[in-house]
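Sequence in, structure out.
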Amino acid sequence: MAEQSDITPIIHQIWHDKDVPPRCQAWVESWRRHHPGWEYRLWTQVECRALLAEHYRWFLPIYDRYPEGVMRAEAGRYFILDRFGGVYVDLDFECLRPVDALLAGQELVVGLEPQEHVQLLSAHRSGLPRLVGTGFLAARPGHPSWPMCTGSWWAAIPAPVRWTPPARSCSPGRSTRPPGTAGSPSWRRGRCIRC
């Protein structure tokens, strides 16, 4: 694939199937409403696996061993952005205005976790001043950050697979709570405030 220097105008989101939960429908629609000229793609777990089978076959044994769907969604976003570029955003993020100006001239844009997450035990011990969030990611196709996350990190995963969000692993931090539990970064509703 030829290298592209701009972030593709496509919004990616991942869910188990095409039935977005009612509590997330307004947030999903906010991204579509603020980006009418953009392509929108809701990926299912089946579609994510098909992408891996076609383009990242080496990762399938790891992907298939994940016991939770949220683990597959966490991993899938990096491969989607590597292949297609664009914006990945969690279903529980609300867009308040278009992101075009934020992305203009950029090849990679990531969000940061709230400062209180840096105070979590594992991040605090590592001495990190900030943590990269995984709920909003944007990149051009083939950006060199994704192979660093998907290649070197995944190669070190011991069996059985344990939950560690990939973005936390790309940076030295680790999540201290499993996803979907109160207080975990993925549990809190996000807002795209600076966009």
